[in-house]
Amino acid sequence: MSDYRSHISVTIWIVLASLTLGILITIPERTFSISVFGSPIEFKFSAAFLAGLVALAATWAGMEAALRTHPKKALLRHTYRFWGLPTAIVLTGAVLSPTLQNQSIWLMTLATTGAALAASMAGEYHTLDVDAPEYAHSRILLNGLAYSVAAVAFILIYLSRSRSLISATLIGLTAGLLAVELLRGSGAKLRTIFLYSAFITLVLAQFTVILNYWPFPSVRVALALMIGFYLLVELAQQTLRQQITRRRIAEYLLMSIVAIAVVFLFPAP
Prior knowledge:
By secondary structure, the chain is mostly helical. It folds into two domains: about 1-100, no CATH class; about 135-269, no CATH class. The protein is built from nine helices and two strands; from the N terminus they run αββαααααααα. A hairpin with a 2-residue loop joins strand 1 (about 30-35) and strand 2. Helix 1 packs antiparallel against helix 4 (about 105-125) and helix 4 (about 105-125) packs antiparallel against helix 5 (about 135-160). The longest helix is centred in the middle third of the chain and has 25 residues, at about 135-160. The mean pLDDT is about 85.
């Protein structure tokens, strides 16, 4: 087993053990309340929250350790840009696990989180070098994982029925983390990638605030946000690659029409 796989293996076990202990261990919960723009927000410090922090720290440390085993040391600059997708996967698993009452579904969710995290970390390692033979397949894998995590995260956030300040912030941050991962494959400079990702974060957050005022079912709104996220990322990628064409514009217009249809025309469940 190569070094990077050893680091990934250890990281997965620590993350899964942390998420499991967050469910099994009970500690006295403390609730903190703050006021933001005149609106009170409650924050609960619990075993699940503490477990999530441990899982996140293990993910960052493990991802960094795995990347540092790469033979081309010149590529190991600004390695934090590879943390976005693994972070989003762990956060999604940490939020979803405590809400599941069925043991079989909980175990399946835990296993899926571990498998997705392992695949993402291995993919991140293999996309360090664009000339590596594994790069193309790893890039496809990471793209698929990023969009899948976005869909699940958006649905979970909307099902929580949180106020706009929380839901818009969470969706914006999730979109930003995943946008960095998806735009990283464009080959653009890091500053430019962060700039476009920040723009996507802002647009998705504002779009979320608008949709929160309309009485649409949560799943429909989440799907509309997912389509919007896809359009923004694809438009950013084509712009960075200077490959904007009439065909691409027609595709984006069609997807926009689909997004509008999802929100307004589909019957409510």
